[in-house]
Amino acid sequence: MAKIVPLFSGSKGNSYCIECSGEGILIDAGRSCKQIVTALEDNDIDVKRIHSVFITHEHSDHCSGLDVLARKLGLTVYGSAGTIRALRNSGKITGRVKTQVIETGEAAGGFFVERTNTPHDAAESCCYTVTAPDGRVCTVATDMGYMTDDVRKKLGESDFCVVESNHDINMLRCGPYPYVLKRRILSDVGHLSNISCAQEIANLAQKGTVRFLLAHLSRENNTPELAYQTAMCEFLQMGMKPDKDFTLDVAPEVTMGKKFIY
C-alpha cells in the first residue's frame, strides 16, 4: 500500500515522503539535511530506502537542505530543466550531485512520476503526480497563483491530493507584509488562497476525487483552523458529508507522525 508523510509543510520549509513496497521518494527538501533525516527516522522510515528527490522549484523553502541531503544519502535530484539550471546557477546544488531532468514523466525505482507546470514566480516550477508500485496515485500541487486545467486534470486522476491552501486573503491584506510582497502572493504567479483551494477541491470531490490534504499554509497569513473551516464550508454548501463523501486534513508545519495511506 502507498502512503505519504508530510515531513514539513509551510512557508518555513516543505518536504514530503511517499513510500510503497519497501522504497521511497521525497518531494522537495526545504529543511536542513539533519532535520529531514530526523523527521524520516521519527516516522520509522528507513533513509536507506529513499533513492530520489523531486524538486518543484528553486525557492529556498523547497530546497534549502537539498545539496547536503542528496550527497549524504546518494539521492538523484529530479526537476524541470529550468529548475535544475536555477539550482546549479545559484549554488544550491553542487557538481557532485547527480541530477536528472524530468520532461513529462520519469521512472524512479518502482515509482512513475509525472511533471505538470505550475504558475509561480520561479524558473520552471511544477507539481508532481506519483504513481506508486501498487498503482495508487498521489499528486502534490503547491506554489501556484491559480489552478490550471492541466493541474486540475492530474488532481482529478489521483487517489490522494496534496493541495496548497496558503493564505486567508483578508489576513494577508491586513497583515504586516510590504505591499510589494502582498501583491506578489496575490498575483497569478503567487500562491493559492484558502477560498480558491476550497472551491477547487470541492468541485473535484463532486467528480469523484475525495481525499485531500491542505498544505503550504503561511504562518503569518493563515491558521490551520481557518484553512480547514474554509474548505469544509465549501464542501457542506455542496451537500457533501465529511468522512462519507470526502476526507479533509491539514498538513502540520512539522510532522506529528501521521501517515496517510491511500
TrEMBL record:
Residues 12-167 form the Metallo-beta-lactamase domain. SUPFAM superfamilies: Metallo-hydrolase/oxidoreductase. It comes from the Bacteria. Signal peptide: none annotated. This is MBL fold metallo-hydrolase. It comes from Candidatus Limousia pullorum.
